[in-house]
Amino acid sequence: VMECKTIPLEKATAKLLLGADVSTSTPEELIIGGKVQKEHIIKADLIYYTNNLQQVFVPSYRFYVKLINPDESSEIENYGLFYVPAVEIDETSGFEVMKNIFQ
């Protein structure tokens, strides 16, 4: 267990837009304009993130981002999930596994 202050959503959004400390499985070619843009962020949640290989739950912001629809004939909208840690990475020096998830 670690004690860290969560960062504000605005700071996490800025990191997402810069591509810093972001984890996603979204293919880059589906991102509108090739880079996440603020107007394509639909919503954000504060969650505890983990991946299949780790046993660490990281407080994170999960962003829902509108993506390119590869099937132009479909009216279904596509969204990607992007995760940004809700704590500063430098505050987690004892948790190298967290750094590996987000870098």
Blueprint of the fold:
Blueprint (H helix, E strand, L loop, with lengths): L8 H10 L4 E2 L16 E9 L8 E10 L10 E8 L10 H7 L1
Antiparallel strand pairs: 1-4, 2-3, 3-4
What do these coordinates show?
The protein is α+β, with helices and mostly antiparallel strands and 103 residues long. A 4-stranded antiparallel β-sheet has the order 1-4-3-2. The protein is elongated, with a radius of gyration of 14 Å.
How widely separated are the two ends?
A: 21 Å
| Discrete helix count | 2
**Biggest sheet layout:** 4 strands, antiparallel
Oligomer: single chain
Q: β content, as a range?
A: 25-35%
- The helix fraction, in percent, is 10-25%
Give me the count of strands. 4
Spatial sequence of strands, sheet with the most strands: 1-4-3-2
Low-confidence stretches: none
Order of secondary-structure elements: HEEEEH
Q: Radius of gyration, Cα only, in angstroms?
A: 14 Å
Report the mean per-residue pLDDT as an integer. 84
- Assign the structural class, choosing from mainly alpha, mainly beta, alpha/beta, alpha+beta, or little secondary structure: alpha+beta
- What spatial form do the alpha-carbon principal axes imply? elongated
